[in-house]
């Protein structure tokens, strides 16, 4: 008897768990299919499916990704072109600098060739076949050649911005003068000024390229 009662209780629990019957006011009533449909509709109405939202968002993201990819490709192409242009400019500039180093003094050398021609013609005056009575004429030709050579050199120097400094009487400047020694200041010579030039100095377009070797006047009689 006890075994049958236990079996009945277990069966009732299984029915309640499966929803076949419901407990109301102490009575076990069957759970109708209409109630199941109502419960199902209520559940479906509470959680409506969201199908359009994710689809539109995903489509917008894909379009944006395609647009960004095109922009990246365009920027990459522009960057590669800019790098190539910079490299070409660098090579062209380097070539111009090398050419300037090699041919920068072309004009100056061309003018010096004319000076060399004068020297060559002057040297021809001292040929071995010259007679003793022609020495006077030879010296005159040499003098004329040297005078022409000096004038031509001055013209070439002026043309290319090369200027010889004449610092006598100027105040001593270590950026332009190289002090050789001191000498007593004579009449009309101010102390601290250049009294004598041992070797001429030169400037190229205003920049000193060789210092002038000078002696500077001082008040004392001491020579250094």
UniProtKB/TrEMBL annotation:
Coiled coil (residue ranges): 58-92
Domain of life: Eukaryota
InterPro entries, per the entry: GrpE (IPR000740), GrpE_CC (IPR013805), GrpE_head (IPR009012)
Function: Essential component of the PAM complex, a complex required for the translocation of transit peptide-containing proteins from the inner membrane into the mitochondrial matrix in an ATP-dependent manner. Seems to control the nucleotide-dependent binding of mitochondrial HSP70 to substrate proteins. Stimulates ATPase activity of mt-HSP70. May also serve to modulate the interconversion of oligomeric (inactive) and monomeric (active) forms of mt-HSP70.
Subunit structure and binding partners: Probable component of the PAM complex at least composed of a mitochondrial HSP70 protein, GRPEL1 or GRPEL2, TIMM44, TIMM16/PAM16 and TIMM14/DNAJC19.
Subcellular location: Mitochondrion matrix
GO BP annotations listed: protein folding; protein import into mitochondrial matrix
Keyword GTP-binding applies: no
UniProt entry tagged with the keyword Acetylation: yes
The protein's name: GrpE protein homolog
Pfam family, one: GrpE
PROSITE patterns membership: GRPE
Gene Ontology cellular-component annotations: PAM complex, Tim23 associated import motor
GO molecular function: adenyl-nucleotide exchange factor activity; protein homodimerization activity; protein-folding chaperone binding; unfolded protein binding
HAMAP family: GrpE
Predominant cellular place of this UniProt entry's protein: mitochondrion
Keywords of the record: Acetylation, Chaperone, Coiled coil, Mitochondrion, Transit peptide
Entry-linked PANTHER family: GRPE PROTEIN, GRPE PROTEIN HOMOLOG 2, MITOCHONDRIAL
Entry's family note: Belongs to the GrpE family.
């Amino acid at each position: 008897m006890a075994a049958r009662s236990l079996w009945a209780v277990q069966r009732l629990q299984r029915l309640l768990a499966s929803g076949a019957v419901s407990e109301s006011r102490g009575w076990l009533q069957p759970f109708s299919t209409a109630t199941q449909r109502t419960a199902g509709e209520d559940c479906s109405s509470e959680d409506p499916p969201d199908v359009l939202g994710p689809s539109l968002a995903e489509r917008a993201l894909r379009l944006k990704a395609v647009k960004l990819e095109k922009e990246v490709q365009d920027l990459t192409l522009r960057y590669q072109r800019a790098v190539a242009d910079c490299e070409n400019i660098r090579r062209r500039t380097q070539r111009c600098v090398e050419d300037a180093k090699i041919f920068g003094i072309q004009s100056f050398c061309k003018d010096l060739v004319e000076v060399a021609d004068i020297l060559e013609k002057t040297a021809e005056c001292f040929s071995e076949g010259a007679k003793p009575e022609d020495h006077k004429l030879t010296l005159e030709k040499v003098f004329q050649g040297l005078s022409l050579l000096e004038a031509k050199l001055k013209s070439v120097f002026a043309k290319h911005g090369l200027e010889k400094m004449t610092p006598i009487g100027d105040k001593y400047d270590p950026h332009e003068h190289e002090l050789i020694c001191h000498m007593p200041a004579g009449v009309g010579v101010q102390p601290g000024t250049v009294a004598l030039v041992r070797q001429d100095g030169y400037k190229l377009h205003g920049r000193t390229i060789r210092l002038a070797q000078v002696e500077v006047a001082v008040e004392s009689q001491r020579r250094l």
